[in-house]
Design brief:
1% of the residues lie in helices and 48% in strands. It is an all-beta fold.
Length: 518
């Protein structure tokens, strides 16, 4: 077990696309070069999860949607039909960065397609603390998170069940588990051999009337085709290795893992795209300059890394944003930016410095942590009195915030900030800076907590003794501390961070449909 995580396990909430969803006919027109007349800006294609509204936020860019063509599962839709957590392709233009580093643009096309659509084949199994459930769909292991997976159309974290036919959007982690950002219940209900299922990926191992569909490295679904399968959308009406496709068809039984295809559609984007942005979890890591984001190969040999230390801290499961040009199906990256980290905290606001974009969070015994807010920080408001537009200017002293972020040179930068009114608990997660086995104290991000006989110690959800913990903990280990109720600086729970997610997304679960915030 390696507890020295460069990228911690934060709650799931938004990042990259796993396949190219450019649509039939070999791609989406007009995604490179300059924008269409009357729009302005530079052409861009962005793949990522929707992280906010008031326009649509994808990959840190606020896209104006006036006049945009919006498609959901090949059906014309409106912005009201979009939801947080949906992984979309946005084609349009992007303007030069603002003075504060912010980015805006204009969307021409927005398209959503699920990663897989099919029935839950195994009974959902909860993890030790009940915050995550896993189950199988089309032979693919899917994980949903109580806090950060967005559920729609009647399905919830509590009631997801075997035989539910689900529309699932999300990201594969380094272990081949599809971490769901968005789940919706589909109608009509599943019926073997009748109701269709769908999956998207890359064609491999074509062998006569069958082929493998690679959804992500190591994640394969078998597909059968026959004389009645519609291949008219494919080049030369043929299935060939390397094509990105969408497969629609049926399965013979609830637990079947082979799709009998009714139609195979072309899902390629143009081989050459001048400006392409993608955010997601690294897979197939070969070196700091050669890896995948989902199924998209990345060449980072000429990229600028932000922060600079990121260049030597990459690996499978790290969540980054890559931007550059696509040449022959490979993204030649100009920049690789860190998008997730291993810092989490839940506490009350001590002070807000709007001029310098800094929030000071209070901790017991007159301790505090400064958190830097940037143009890419995502905000969500779960307060019952929350507004649609929520940002640093709306934060007040004494309010309870949940913050996730990362470290740059010892300073904390916020990836997500959520305002909450549910409890008075104090939580802090980050790399251990100091510890004292004799005093049984632990320091994280400059804040020191003590422990006593009532403190629970855990490693990978298994209880351990205080002596075991202090004999094994090392500087740099990522540890989570909970100080519930009175917040007296005495830890109620101390846990090595070994959450299986290994990454997080940009969004927060939407507990209330009225609280979709940017």
């Amino acid at each position: 077990m390696n507890r020295k995580l460069t990228y911690g396990s934060l709650s799931i909430v938004a990042a990259s696309v796993l396949y190219a969803c450019g649509g039939g006919g070999g791609g989406t027109a007009g995604i490179g070069g300059t924008g269409s007349a009357g729009i302005g800006g530079t052409g861009i294609s962005a793949d990522g999860a929707i992280t906010g509204f008031g326009s649509v936020f994808v990959n840190g860019i606020r896209f104006d949607t006036d006049g945009a063509n919006i498609m959901i599962d090949d059906t014309l839709a409106s912005e009201n039909d979009l939801a947080l957590g949906m992984i979309v392709r946005v084609d349009g233009t992007v303007n030069a960065r603002g003075a504060d580093g912010s980015r805006t643009g204009n969307a021409r096309n927005i398209r959503f397609d699920s990663v897989i659509e099919g029935p839950v084949a195994t009974s959902p199994q909860a993890n030790a603390d009940g915050t995550e459930k896993t189950f199988s769909v089309l032979g693919v292991m899917v994980a949903v998170d109580e806090r950060s997976t967005v559920f729609r159309s009647g399905v919830t974290f509590a009631n997801v069940a075997i035989n539910n036919r689900l529309d699932i959007s999300g990201f594969f982690d380094a272990n081949g588990v599809l971490r769901a950002t968005y789940v919706a219940l589909d109608e009509p209900a599943f019926s073997p051999g009748v109701i269709e299922v769908e999956a998207r990926g890359v064609v491999e191992n074509v062998n006569g009337n069958s082929f493998d569909l690679r959804l992500a490295p190591g994640v394969i679904i078998m597909v059968n085709i026959n004389g009645s399968t519609n291949l008219s959308d494919l080049p030369n009406n043929m299935v060939v290795n390397g094509l990105r496709v969408e497969v629609e068809g049926t399965i013979a039984s609830l637990g079947a893992t082979t799709i009998n295809a009714r139609e195979v559609e072309d899902e390629r984007f143009d081989d050459d795209v001048d400006n392409f942005s993608i955010t997601g979890s690294i897979s197939n890591f070969m070196s700091n300059t050669q890896f995948n984001i989902g199924n998209l190969p990345i060449n980072a040999s000429g990229a600028r890394f932000s922060p600079a230390s990121l260049e030597t801290n990459l690996g499978n499961g790290a969540v980054v944003q890559a931007e550059g040009r696509v040449v022959n199906g490979t993204l030649i990256a100009d920049s690789i930016e860190q998008r997730r980290g291993n810092v989490e905290m839940e506490s009350r606001v001590q002070a807000v410095d709007q001029a310098n974009n800094v929030i000071t969070m209070m901790f017991p015994n007159d301790q505090s942590i400064n958190v830097n807010v940037t143009f890419s920080t995502q905000f969500d408001d779960d307060d019952d009195n929350g507004s649609q537009q929520f940002n640093i200017n709306d934060i007040r002293t004494g309010e309870l915030l949940e913050i996730e972020g990362y470290l740059v040179g010892g300073a904390v930068f916020a990836s997500e900030i959520e305002r909450d009114d549910d409890n008075n608990n104090i939580e802090l997660q980050g790399p251990v800076g100091a510890f004292n086995p004799i005093e049984q104290s632990l320091t994280i991000l400059g804040v020191t907590f003590t422990t006593n006989g009532g403190t629970e110690f855990e490693d990978d959800d298994n209880g351990i003794s205080v002596s075991d913990f202090f004999s094994r903990v090392m500087i740099g280990d990522v540890v989570e501390i909970e100080d519930n109720g009175v917040g007296d600086g005495i830890a109620d729970e101390v846990e090595f961070d070994d959450d299986g997610f290994g990454f997080s997304f940009n969004d927060f679960e939407d507990d209330d449909d009225d609280d979709d915030d940017s």
